[in-house]
Amino acid sequence: MPTLTDRLLTAADSGLRTLLAPPRAARPSPAAAVTASTPLTEDEQRLSGALMRVNHVGEICAQALYTAQALGTSDPALRRQLDAAAREETDHLAWTRERLDQLGDRVSLLNPLWFAGAFGIGLLAGRLGGDRLSLGFVVETERQVEAHLASHLDRLPAADSASRAIVAQMKDDEARHADAALHAGGVALPAPVRGLMRLAAKVMTVTAHRI
Q: Residue 128 has what pLDDT?
């Protein structure tokens, strides 16, 4: 069984790889299946870049949350579940980064801040609330992300088939992660906590859209 030191080192390694190393996906990008795409106008390309930057930040936060919650739990089975979800989120991180490069855009300049904030929240949820509340936090986070991605499908240019394919697959994956956490024993969070989570997500998305 991994010791606390082992888990701390794993968490530190995850943070460094998330922020500094090129992410590597285990699955091919959904954009690779898009055979033809209408060229985007300058405004469409700029909008797609901003939305995919926001989605990339969301995946930075997902890595931080899952890593922190895996560190905070003493249940080996739950830790394996969280680690598996984090690996799948790495696909999303790689896909969004690749799409940003294709669009000629950049990642958020505040990624270290987003990671640190999400890690702190995840660790707090895991340490203070226990495993059931920690899983409930995963459920609520993934439900909110799912809704956020649905809104991006409405906002992305119709001609940007590549970005739309990526976001659609991410949305399906997030729904599955929420269901898995719910079935593992996640409990509903109090309404004020859900509201604070939505507010924090709003601040992040508005900021990351530009910075």
A: 66
Burial status of residue 158 (CB atoms within 10 A of its CB: 0-12, 13-18, 19 or more): exposed
Provide the pLDDT for residue 130. Answer: 74
Spatial separation of the C-alpha atoms in residues 24 and 27, rounded to whole Å = 9
Contacts of 188 (CB under 8 A, 6+ apart): 136, 139, 140
List the structure tokens of 93: 């991180």
Query: CB of 16 within 8 A of CB of 121?
Result: no
Q: Does the CA dihedral 16-48-101-161 come out positive or negative?
A: positive
CA distance 10 to 16: 10
Summarize pLDDT for 80-106 with one digit per residue, the tens: 888 888 888 889 999 999 999 999 999
Rg (CA), the chain: 17
CA distance 195 to 201: 10
Q: Which residue has the tokens 């739309």?
A: 164
What three-state secondary structure class fits 29? coil
> For residue 130, which of 207, 184, 196, 74 has the smallest C-alpha distance?
74
Chain segment 16-63, per-residue pLDDT in tens? 567 656 788 888 999 888 876 678 899 999 999 999 999 999 888 888
DSSP state of 109: T
CA distance 199 to 90: 25
Spell out the alpha helix ranges (H) of the chain. Answer: 4-20, 42-72, 76-102, 111-128, 130-155, 161-183, 191-208
